[in-house]
């Protein structure tokens, strides 16, 4: 089971655009965040109170990691999720992060730490 999938193209994007020019993405596209620190994507996900597994599908076609902050309901869960190079923009990888959710609506935000911005973000999945 993969939990519930939330596409990045349906999330709230701060400084970035939905694109579809790199094959292999789910849904209608992915988010290409601007190459700037602080650009972010924020999803609203449903939860029950307690632990959950967050999976983040991304591509980084460079050889430089794109560390990002993963926050749930405004609280940082991972300060430097590495998002290393995947070899090509068409090669998608999944990062797994343990999180804790509240009952009902929760926000999951991925914010670029460096001037290189976020990797391209395809979707998140939340499993409880
Ligand atoms: C390329 C690539 C984009 C990517 C960007 C980046 O332009 O085509 O999909 O987002 O590099 O470096 O972030």
The Cα radius of gyration reads 13 Å
- Beta percentage is over 45%
The CATH topology comes to Jelly Rolls
State the major sheet.
5 strands, antiparallel
Low-confidence stretches: none
Structural domain tally: 1
**Total helix count?**
0
Total DSSP E strands: 11
| Order of helix and strand elements from N to C terminus | EEEEEEEEEEE
Given the helix and strand composition, which structural class is it? Answer: mainly beta
Gap between N and C termini: 10 Å
Identify the CATH class.
Mainly Beta
- Broad shape: globular
Ligand identities: alpha-D-glucopyranuronic acid
CATH A-level architecture: Sandwich
* Assembly classification: single chain
Strand order of the largest sheet: 2-5-10-7-8
Proportion of helical residues:
under 10%
Question: What's the name of the CATH homologous superfamily?
Answer: Galactose-binding domain-like
Please provide a written account of the structure:
It is a single chain. Strand 7 and strand 8 form a beta hairpin. The model has no long low-confidence stretch (mean pLDDT 97). The chain is globular, with a radius of gyration of 13 Å. It is mainly β. It contains no helices and 11 strands. It has one domain (4-127): Jelly Rolls. A 5-stranded antiparallel β-sheet has the order 2-5-10-7-8, with no helix packed on it. A 4-stranded antiparallel β-sheet has the order 1-11-6-9, with no helix packed on it. Strands 3-4 form a two-stranded antiparallel sheet. Helix content is 0%, strand content 55%. Alpha-D-glucopyranuronic acid binds at residues 22, 32, 35, 89, 117, 120. Residues 22, 32, 35, 89, 117, 120 line the site of alpha-D-glucopyranuronic acid (GCU). This is Glycosyl hydrolase family 28 protein. Belongs to the glycosyl hydrolase 28 family. Residues 4-127 form the CBM6 domain.
């Amino acid at each position: 089971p993969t939990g519930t999938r939330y596409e990045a193209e349906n999330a709230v994007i701060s400084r970035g655009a939905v694109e579809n020019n790199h094959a292999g993405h789910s849904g209608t596209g992915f988010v290409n965040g601007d190459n700037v620190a602080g650009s972010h994507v924020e999803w609203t996900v449903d939860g029950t109170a307690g632990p959950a597994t967050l999976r983040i599908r991304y591509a980084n076609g460079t050889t430089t990691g794109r560390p990002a902050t993963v926050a749930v309901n405004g609280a940082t869960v991972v300060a430097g999720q590495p998002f290393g190079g995947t070899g090509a923009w068409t090669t998608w990888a999944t990062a797994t992060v343990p999180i804790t959710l509240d009952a009902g609506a929760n926000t999951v935000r991925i914010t670029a730490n460096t001037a290189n911005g976020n990797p391209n973000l395809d979707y998140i999945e939340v499993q409880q």
